[in-house]
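Lab notebook, bench 4. Continuing the backlog of folding jobs that were queued last week. Each job is logged with the same field layout so the records can be merged later without manual cleanup. Today's entry covers Thiolase-like protein, a 423-residue chain. Filled in by technician R.K.

JOB TYPE: sequence-to-structure
TARGET: Thiolase-like protein
LENGTH: 423
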Amino acid sequence: MNFPISNSVYITGLAHQYPEYSQTQEQFAELVTRLFPEHISSPGFRRLLHVNQNTKISSRPTISDYSTWTKDHANPPTIDELSRIFRTTGVDLTVSACNKALKEAQLSAADITHVVAVTCTDQGSPGYDLFVSQELQLPDDVQRTLLHGVGCAGGLSALREAANLAASASLRGRPARVLVFATELCSLFFRAELQAACKDDKNLHIAPALFSDASAALVVCNGLAMKEEQKPIFELQEWGSALIPGTKNHMSYSVSPNGMIATITKEVPKATVGAISSMFDEVCNPTGASLDPAAFDWAIHPGGLAILKGAQQAMSLTDDHIRASLDIYTKFGNSSSPTVLVVLDKLRKMGTGRDDIVAASFGPGLMIEMFRLRRCRDVEIRQALSLGVLAKAHGLGMSVISRLSRPIRKYSMVHRMRTHKAV
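JOB STATUS: finished
OUTPUT FIELD FOLLOWS
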């Protein structure tokens, strides 16, 4: 480990949940024709259907079964009706993801000390985090934080808040077990987006062809909260976020009476890709020493194929480096804030991989979020956790823990060199 066990922050459980229905490119085009036959030749629809044909997304999960929809379903519900759907179906989806993450983390609801939640597809108050907490039967005194307005960056925004809470608790000598969840039901705004597309001849409304529904959840623990039997997945080593100058109008969500309408300009891919290199240097390479981006696996938010391919070219990466992002994008599309967490969940199941990982996401602002993570290997986990339990049991000071940690750090360095060669 780079730091004594008590100072470290870990992801100990990670899961995601997609809804039961999905929609292919062909089904999307056919549905649009059924709902708005009189507008199918409008410039807005022609552009949207052209984008749909070229996304390379095989299917997008959704909470709705569109197979029986007719022209009578074309009018969108009110935003109040949409919020009620989110607070039932969306909460259920979230609870499912959270239960899986808690099970892997080997924690009960009573163990959770903090909650950090994020969504951009429901704006009601109290927030959906309260209803999820109640369904999970979390303690009444759990400390809750709900993030809004961060869009597709939200998964890592929530993880950053959780990491800061866990690190702060360590400084105060307290355990922290933070449940993080991100849920988006982008399909709630499907019909409002289609109405905007058929009436707007100037702007490109691409959201209906890209976005899907999903929930992701994870558990973040500081070293003081770790139990010997737990098996952490990733160590959170460094993180940061920044606004990209001059990009305020590149991406936004405006609230309408029937939902939220996304504006995503053609400048977004270039702007986000251009910010990755400098953010990588700030988060992963603060000393300025030579550091090869290809030494990392990359979990990039799949906002679109142009973003993934642009990032790949900018950082001199192969398809293998971004394999999880490509896989999630082509199979499930972009689910906004949960997506990068789904990518991390997928990445850990795609073989041994590289020890170090960079996760990056982008949202309105434009803002970029980035994390540097390290995979927790079994032998390193057992040694580090045994040390942490010993230190806590005997009240050892931080200097003693640091000296005892040196053999583990030496082992970790040798292990990483061997793993890198194997990869």
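OBSERVATION: The chain has one domain: 5-380.
SIGNED: R.K.
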